Amino acid sequence: MELRRFFVTPEDVRGDTVTVTGGEFVHMTRVLRMKPGYKAVVCADDGKERLCTVKEIGSGYALLSQDEVRDADRKKVSLTLFTGLLKNSKLDFVVQKAVELGVDKIVPFVSAYTAEKKFNAERANKIALEAAKQCGSVWLSRVEEPVTFDEVTAEFGKFDTVLFAYEGDRLHSLKNTEIRGTSLALVVGSEGGFRPDEAERAVACGAKAITLGRRILRAETAGIVGAALVLDAAGELDYD
Q1: Most buried residue, 88, 115, 156, 194, by most Cβ within 10 Å?
Q2: What angle do CA 151, 188, 156 make, to 5 degrees?
Q3: Could you read off the pLDDT tens digit of each residue along the chain, which spans 240 residues?
Q4: Residues 6+ apart with CB under 8 A from 147
Q5: 155 near 202, Cβ under 8 Å?
C-alpha cells in the first residue's frame, strides 16, 4: 500500500506522538478512510520524514505514533517569490512549480501594469499542499494574500539579498550578481512588467535589478525560471 504523506506544524509533534487536525485530518479519515493501524509519512516543515502508525482517531483529530524519524532534506537558503498577479489562473501553475523547486513563500502583488485583481489564497495553498505531496517534499510552501507593490518594497529590509527581475535591465545577469546570506527574495512582475519608476523604487529600497536573459519570457515562465536560477546559484538544488 502506498504510504500517504501528511503535513503538520512543529507544535503538533510532541515526543513520539503526532497530532493531525484540520484539512489533513479530513483528508486522512474521510477521503482515505484511514483507521488505527494504518501507516503514514508525516512532515512537520523541519526537513524530517516521520514514518508513523495511526493509533487513535477522535472527533477532529488523529493521534499517530512515530516509528522512525529520518533527516530527508536540508535548506541552505530560504527563497520568497514575489510575483505579480497573473491572468487566467496562470498563477496556479507558478505556485505548483515553485513548490516543486523549493520556494518557501509565494507573495502575489498588484503593480501598475497588473491586469488581474482577484486571487484566492486558500485555493492556492491547497495547490501548494498537493504539489508538496506529489513531489515528495518535506517542506510546505506558503502562499500569502495579495499585497501592493509598496508593501513589497517595504519588505526588502527583511532579506539578505533581493533580486528584481526587470525587463528594462540588459546588463546584470544573475550569474554575475552576488547573492549574499541565506534569506533571499525574487521579484517578478505580471504580464505588463514594471514601470521605470517602480524599478527605480525597488533599487532604491535595496533590490538588485537583474535580467533573466535576452529572450522575452511569459510572466509565468519568468517566475519559474527565475526561481530555479536563484536556487541553483545559491546551491539549493545541489545534492549533499
Answers
A1: 194
A2: 40
A3: 579 999 999 999 999 999 999 999 999 999 999 999 999 999 999 999 999 999 999 999 999 999 999 999 989 999 999 999 999 889 999 999 999 999 999 999 999 999 998 999 999 999 999 999 999 999 999 999 999 999 999 999 999 999 999 998 888 898 889 999 999 999 999 999 999 999 999 999 999 999 998 888 999 999 999 999 999 999 998 876
A4: 107, 108, 109, 110
A5: no
